[in-house]
Design a protein that fits this description.
heterodimer, A: alpha/beta, Rossmann fold, about 50% helix, elongated, B: alpha/beta, four-stranded parallel β-sheet, 13 helices, globular
């Protein structure tokens, strides 16, 4: 996937200017929040349910090494082939060569963020295996040659007209502005692919240690199709997907579908335990489960940062984020967008390649309030900023901009004694004098010009509170 | 009567002293026995947000030394109180003695409206303010401190004040400290929504409890010719 994280500001600016997209984003946020809230309100005690889910994810991540071993053992018992991959290269190589070994030339794919992360579709295509995304949104994104705009709704920013023109060009169907007809066209196009594909690839919403099962959540039936018709089903999952028990998994399921799309339950939930058994009609003959690390063990080793691994990729944080709902998903420049992307992209790519992501947050904390998995993005972002300031290179932090460290050192020195603070306060008043025009400050120099781009400082009071108060007391 | 240490955040001290004098006025009216220690400076929040933990720890120690002797610490800002409550113990976690002292300070820090309602048990400060107003629920007060009913209770009992709903009252105003300076385009877009929601509310005054949000929204409205006033809740409560 083309990496654009270093162009955050530029892409954000372009997207802010896209009025149509802005309208879609605000509708999306409004509708999803309402659906989410009403589906949560249907729970006997929504706060208790959220707390329980957060605890499950926290414990799952904490006990991940043990849970993964248990999962491997039970999945193997159920007849799956479990394969460990330490990075994108290993996972891609294994899957492509397995597909070749099976003599495959056609592959159908379920929507999976981890496959986006490692660029699996492109690798398969380059390996001569025609590969199709079968989730409608992801199919649109593939046809358009774009990147996902949102974790759950990868094409939510595209209008019916754009999709109509796209399908007309790529799959040769007549133009129509009827969304149902467009969906039918995509289904008809994909039907043959499903029937003839030798390989079906999916991700995993959860992996249950206790039973060795994979759980997949969807609305379109494409995942059920892709994982039951082809002879070989390959699951690609990242290590943090594991949960201890089926009871934990079903609890998380309640929170996941409610937070993804505001549904009490999705149209389909597939629980896959091993390949087709003797006497069963449907299902793949072989099941491979590729468990991928790709930098996560390193994140796991840091007690604060590991919180990012609790994420269940519901995408709810994006819908309540003031930044995402204005700039959209492309600005995040890589697979994950919204608040979780703001910390996960830097952690997986290196902080130096995604510095803007963890700085471009208002720290409002709405994401944490809505998160069903207990991810504290605000705190993780602050931790990443601290790594940068401390010169901690464990996640390839770049050095802070020149002079910034010195500025904060001076600032600290000023704040450590009231007399220095008082002098600085008087100095500021004198320095600011020339900037005052018509009783307010409308233009500031340097970095502070960002403030006055759309704001002024209405008045600079002649005296500080401190000065006023000492006179009051007299 | 309880002994309160009044903390005046640097933004209030330097740019919005009228908020500080309003708090003093209300405390005096309610007979709250308070002290204002002139050695205070800033809680160090900008340093925490910039990732300068070393600087922030030093400032935290300075703050703790000044404030730990009092029974309560009250400030007309949610984000400063959150810094004291949540960040101080975290910043000083590796220094056992300081950690204990940070926890001590953390337990007695209150945002202004929270202190009036939850600690003093005051819901009516017996004041008058003729206006049609709406309340912006600042993130630090609403989300980080979980304070929402308190300011509403206080405002409901202000005579002459008509409270009207504000759409997306609980959505961030786009301040975020350094965010407003470093990402002005995004901040502006978020602010514009806030200003539009305010306009649509029909109110002539926007009330809030966070100095940062106040500077942000007021600055935008002044610069973009949006009619109306932005005021801190203490200013409203101190009006008469």
């Amino acid at each position: 996937m083309n990496l654009q994280t270093e162009r955050f500001k530029e892409i954000a600016r372009e997207n802010l200017a896209n009025e149509e997209q802005r309208k879609i984003l605000s509708q999306f946020s409004l509708i999803l929040k309402a659906l989410r809230d009403s589906s949560f309100a249907a729970l006997p005690d929504e706060n208790a349910a959220l707390e329980k889910g957060r605890k499950i994810r926290e414990d799952s991540v904490k006990n991940m090494p043990y849970l993964l071993e248990t999962f491997e053992e039970n999945a193997t018992k159920a007849g799956a082939n479990v394969v460990w991959a330490s990075d994108a290269r290993q996972a891609n190589d294994f899957i492509v060569s397995l597909a070749k070994e099976k003599g495959a030339n056609l592959c159908v794919k379920a929507k999976s963020m981890i496959s986006e992360e490692i660029g699996l579709r492109e690798e398969l295509t380059d390996g001569g295996i025609e590969t199709y995304e079968t989730d409608l949104g992801e199919f649109i994104v593939q046809q358009a040659g774009k990147t996902p705009f949102h974790i759950v709704g990868p094409a939510i920013n595209m209008t019916i007209k754009e999709i109509s023109n796209l399908f007309n060009k790529t799959i040769g169907v007549p133009k129509t502005e009827d969304p149902t007809e467009l969906a039918i066209s995509a289904r008809m196009f994909l039907r043959d692919k499903f029937k003839n594909a030798q390989i079906g690839i999916s991700g995993a919403n959860m992996a249950v240690a206790e039973t060795g099962s994979i759980i997949l959540v969807e609305n379109e039936g494409n995942i059920r199709f892709a994982t039951s018709v082809p002879k070989t089903h390959i699951v690609l999952m990242s290590i943090e997907k594991v949960v201890p028990t089926m009871s934990d998994a079903t609890h998380m399921l309640k929170l996941l579908t409610r937070s993804c799309t505001g549904q009490r339950i999705s149209n389909y939930v597939s629980v896959i335990t091993g390949p087709k058994k003797a006497g069963e009609i449907d299902g793949p003959e072989e099941l491979y489960i590729v468990i991928l690390d790709n930098g996560r063990t390193k994140i796991y080793s840091d007690e604060v940062l590991r919180g990012a691994l609790q994420c269940i990729k519901c995408g709810m944080c994006a819908a309540v984020c003031p930044v995402y709902t204005h700039v959209g998903g492309y600005a995040y420049g890589w697979v994950y967008s919204g608040p979780i992307g703001a910390v996960l992209n830097p952690l997986l790519l290196g902080l130096d390649r995604a510095r803007d992501l963890y700085h471009a947050t208002t720290l409002c904390g709405a994401c944490k309030d809505y998160c069903p998995a207990g991810v504290d993005v605000r705190n993780i972002a602050l931790d990443l900023r601290a790594k940068e300031m401390d010169g901690d290179k464990s996640f390839n932090a770049s050095n802070p901009p020149v002079g910034l460290k010195r500025l904060y050192r001076i600032w600290t020195w000023v704040l450590l004694h009231h007399s220095r603070y008082k002098i600085a306060s008087r100095l500021m008043r004198i320095i600011m004098l020339p900037a005052i025009k018509y009783g307010k400050i409308s233009r500031l120099p340097g970095r502070l010009s960002g403030w006055t781009q759309c704001r002024d400082i209405p008045q600079l009071p002649p005296k500080s509170f401190h000065e006023i108060y000492s006179e009051l007391k007299k | 009567m309880k002994e309160v240490a009044l903390f005046i955040p640097c933004l209030v001290d330097q740019l919005l002293p009228e908020i500080g004098t309003s708090v003093v006025k209300i405390f005096r009216k309610l007979g709250v026995s308070f002290v204002y220690d002139p050695r205070q400076t800033c809680c160090g929040q900008p340093l925490v947000n910039a990732g300068d933990r070393k600087g922030a720890s030093q400032v935290a120690k300075h703050f703790i030394s000044i404030f730990e002797g009092s029974e309560y610490i009250v400030a007309p800002s949610g984000s400063c109180i959150y810094t004291v409550k949540e960040h101080y113990p975290r910043l000083l976690a590796d220094e056992p003695v300081w950690y204990q002292r940070a926890c001590g300070v953390s337990e007695k820090a209150y945002e202004f409206s929270q202190f009036l309602v939850a600690i003093l048990g005051v819901s009516d400060v017996d004041t008058r303010y003729e206006a049609r107003a709406c309340l912006h629920e600042s993130c630090a007060i609403l989300r980080q401190l979980g304070v929402s009913d308190e300011p509403k209770t206080l405002l409901k009992n202000v005579e002459g004040l008509e409270l009207t709903p504000l759409n997306d009252a609980d959505v961030c105003c786009g301040f975020g400290g350094e965010f407003a300076v470093d990402y002005p385009d995004i901040s502006e877009a978020i602010l514009k929504d806030k200003a539009n929601n305010f306009k649509a509310s029909g109110a002539d005054i926007l009330i809030l409890g966070e100095p940062g949000c106040l500077l942000n929204i007021r600055g935008y409205m002044s610069s973009n010719g949006v009619n109306g006033h932005v005021k801190h809740i203490a200013e409203i409560l101190a009006s008469e």
